[in-house]
Every structure is written in structure tokens, then in C-alpha cells.
Amino acid sequence: MTEAMIGAAPDVGLELRGVSLHYGGKRSWRRKAEPVRAVDGVDIVLGPGETLGIVGESGSGKSTLGRIAAGIEAPSAGSVRFRGEPYAAIGSAAWRRQRRSVQVVFQNPSQALDPRLSIAAQVREPMDAHGIDAGGGTVEAMLARVGLAGLGGRFPHQLSGGQLQRAVIARALSLSPDVIVCDEAVSALDVSVQAQILNLLQDLQAEFGVAFLFISHDLGVVRHVSHRIAVMRQGQIVETGLAAEVFARPQHPYTRALIAALPAASPAARRQRDARALASLLKA
């Protein structure tokens, strides 16, 4: 895949080259096991302070790609580099230092938080683990920044789904990361709360300069937050480019199908979109 196809950002913060992760398939008495290609030869780059959206249907490999990008899982082939340096071996001291700079916000915040600890304690916990001074109201200020002022003493069961996700975002930001991998970070929330969290992420990016690898099955959500989009299908990136260009002139049939499935704002908008899709098909 060429650099133009990859849609590289001018400055590389996180870089995945030829990344694959194959799992052993099920073996039967009639045939040997075929490997499951969860991720298969993916190239992506994420520049400082930008948002790269990874979109695809369930089972496309996007969440596995996110875990590799976050250093949670090691690829079976290819390389992952952060700030020009390869990821260290998982579990090593160097890996723990790198993990401070690359954080994750998962889909289900209630599973990501410890029900036995207060929200403030859970925001403070990673700071203590990395030897960061959490004094002087640092935790309270971070909670206030994500809209949870005065709620640090509460426990997870006392907060709504949107508040829980805000707490998880505050915990990730407490380490001042350069990159946050958002894996279906708003898919468990209702539409109005989704919009609030997406706006919060964009505000935090403008304030702190953090880059987001934003993973979602919802192309509409990805379009709202992403500078660039990579479309993933069956473990591979089939199309990538600036968000506006991907939506205006989708090149791959799978991308066109995803866009066609989006609800249109009006019948006129639907007709315009269908006309663009037809023109794209006639050129193909």
C-alpha cells in the first residue's frame, strides 16, 4: 500500500506498518485449522493532535487493531512505533512507560470502573501508579473539566452512563497522554448523550492536543469527529482519506454501501447522495 493510499499525516505520532494478528482456527477431523485473520497487513499513521476514525462492521477487526495500537496486544507480524520508537515487550518497564502516553476509553464504562472505589480514587489511581503528584486539587480539576464537578466522592453505581464515560475519559486524561484509543466509546449511550461526549472529546483535543484513534461501527459518528477516516473490512483497510473526501467521493464499494445505509437529513439530501453514488459507480 502506498503512502498516498495510507493517507499519512504530516507528522507521525503512532505508526502501524504491515500489522497482522492471526489466531489459530478450529480444527476438525476432515481438515486442518485455518487461521483467523483478525487483522491482516494494516498500515495506518496517526499524527499529533488529529483524529483518525476507524470504521467497519462488527467482526471487521477494528477493535483488535485498537488493542494493538494501544499496546495491549502484540501483533503476529508487522511493527508498531510510537514517536519513532518501537513498542516495548508487553509487561516490561519500558512498555509501562509507553502505556502512560497511549490510553484507552472502552465501550462499556461500567465494566472499566471498579465498583468498590470512588470516582476520584479511580482517577487518582493511575497517577499514583506512575508517580504523578495528584495533590493541589488536580483530580478535582480534571473531574470538573469533563463535567463531573463535585461528583468525585460518588461510586460508579451512583452515576449515569454518560457520567461514567466522562469519568473514564478523566482517568485517561489524568496521565496527560499523547494518544487515546476510543473503542466504541459512545455506542452504549443514547443519541443525546453521545453528542455531549463527542463534543467533550473535541473540546479536550483542542485544549490538550491529544490525538484520538476513534473506532466505531457508526459512520455518522466517525464523520462527526474525524479528520481522516480508514474503512476496515475483514481485517484490512479498504479505503482511507480525509473525512470530507471519503464521504463526498467514496472509492470502494464497501464504503459506498456504508454511506448509503446512513439516514439522510431530508429526501433532497438522499437524492443528492444517491446521485453521487451512481456517478461513482459509473466511473468505476
Automatic annotation (TrEMBL):
Keywords: ATP-binding, Nucleotide-binding, Transport. This is ABC transporter ATP-binding protein. One of its GO terms (cellular component) is plasma membrane. Pfam families: ABC_tran (PF00005), oligo_HPY (PF08352). Belongs to the ABC transporter superfamily. It is a peripheral membrane protein. One of its GO terms (molecular function) is ATP hydrolysis activity. Residues 16-259 form the ABC transporter domain. It comes from Aureimonas glaciei. It is found in: Cell inner membrane. One of its GO terms (biological process) is transmembrane transport. InterPro entries: AAA+_ATPase, ABC_transp_ATP-bind, ABC_transporter-like_ATP-bd, ABC_transporter-like_CS, Oligopep_ABC_C, P-loop_NTPase.
